[in-house]
Amino acid sequence: MRRVRQISREEHLAFIAEQPSVSPLQCPSWGEVKAGWRAESVGWDDGSGRLVGAGLVLHRRLPVLGRTLAYLPEGPSLPWEQVAEDVAGWLVPLVGHLRRGGAFAVRMGPPVEVERWEAATLKAAVAAGTARRLGDVPPDATTPWVAGLREGLAAQGWRPPAEDGDGHGFSAGQPRHVFQLPLAGRSLDEVRAGLNQLWRRNVKKAEKGGVVVREGGAEDLPAFHALYVHTAERDGFVPRPLGYFEGMWRAMRAEDPRRLRLFLAEHEGEPLAAATLVTVGDHATYSYGASASHRRELRPSNAVQWRMVEEAHAAGCAVYDLRGISDTLDAQDPLFGLVQFKLGTGGHALAYLGEWDLPLHRLLHRAFETYLARR
Predict the structure, then answer these.
(1) What's the whole-number average pLDDT of the chain?
(2) Within this chain, do residues 123 and 93 fall inside the same structural domain, yes or no?
(3) Intra-chain end-to-end CA distance of the chain, in Å
(4) What strand order describes the sheet that includes 68-72?
(5) Which of 29, 111, 261, 320 registers the highest number of CB atoms within 10 A of its CB?
(6) Which SUPFAM superfamilies is this protein grouped with (predicted)?
(7) pLDDT at 171 over 70
(8) Burial class (CB in 10 A: 0-12, 13-18, 19+), 123
(9) How far apart, in whole angstroms, are the C-alpha atoms of residue 74 and residue 110?
(10) CATH label of the domain that carries residue 321
(11) pLDDT tens column, 1-15
């Protein structure tokens, strides 16, 4: 009989090492990055002491009351096809453990792929003008057992949280739609040949224009952050402070020196673009990126992305993950530019199952949702 118990950091890391990959947000180091949350590693024990699943739980404490929202971002790491056949058997022990710890609600983001669209399919739909959203395009692949998982979750009281209302598939948590470039079984020349003509031209233009991409260290974080703050001002989002990235650097690299890396694209010694690369197992993920508003004709952003693809390929990664996209295919939509940039790599778009909530104390959960909506 499965049971869920708190596990040590060492047990959690040993479990992760046995998996092809897990989300970086499910590594113990992520709990150290997220100030204001209390982190707990939990494991599914098959009854013989062997772990068959694990997760990082982030607890957000309510003032005064002391109850917590228990959040498993892009997790837990479970054999989800098996979970679909017995949702209660896998998740009831988790809920019981978290309820005993004072949780008023649980939120999780099962890393389950629902649908996949190849770049060629989406480019054809855009060219034909026949679709405004990813959902308007028949997917190239679907996961057949997802319907059973959804039904099982709903039967246990789980439900998707409310969208934030922007109409583009972004929720309060992690993105439901991402773009990935497959690397497994492909030579680097084959990966490069899969880039569209504009991408190949821009990478070459950066090389000929004298853009040099180098790997940076902790001492380069201020230069990265200056570009990042400029990017935030230009694109209209609130930047994280330098201390956030310094804390991320310390925590993730202490866990594994290759977990987090920084790359800077420079021209004559001036940083023009920079990005961070996170690797867990065979999965490399583009995390944060930034760029200057001048000398963009040198295409430093393409250069730094291509360098990270090269590094991921050299490390034997199966996937280079460009992370979130909106679901828009409307060329007039301001968010389509990011989709178009990532489409140019020749990879594929994925729709994940998304995040699900289980209220354990409905009044507190409703109050917390109201707080999030007003924040």
Answers:
(1) 93
(2) no
(3) 42
(4) 3-6, 38-45, 51-61, 68-72, 103-108, 356-359
(5) 320
(6) Acyl-CoA N-acyltransferases (Nat)
(7) no
(8) middle
(9) 6
(10) 3.40.630.30
(11) 689 999 999 999 999
Q: Taking residues 275-302, what's their average pLDDT?
A: 96
Kindly compute the dihedral angle of the four CA atoms of residues 298, 286, 326, 131, in this order, to the nearest 10 degrees. Answer: 70
Do 77 and 134 fall within a single domain? no
Residue 97: which domain range? 3-109+355-374
pLDDT tens by residue, 63-73: 767 789 999 99
- pLDDT tens digits for range 210-234: 999 999 999 999 999 999 999 999 9
pLDDT recorded at residue 317: 98
**CB neighbours of 279 closer than 8 A, spacing ≥ 6?**
258, 259, 261, 285, 312, 315, 317
The phi, psi pair for 196, rounded to 5°, reads -75, 170
- Span 244-269, average pLDDT: 97
The verdict on 191 and 305 lying in the same domain is: yes
Distance in angstroms (rounded) separating the CA atoms of residues 252 and 33: 8
Token output for 53: 């699943």
CA dihedral 361, 364, 367, 373 (to 10 degrees): -70
Taking residues 194-206, what's their average pLDDT? Answer: 96
Clarify whether residues 348 and 359 are in a common domain. Answer: no
pLDDT on residue 205: 97
- Token pair belonging to 256: 């594994």
Domain tally for the chain?
Answer: 2
Residue 262: which of 328, 217, 231 has the closest Cα? 217
Higher-confidence residue: 221 or 169? 221
Residue 172 sits in the same domain as residue 256: yes
Q: Looking up tokens 């959960």, which residue turns up?
A: 365
Q: Which amino acid is at 364?
A: L
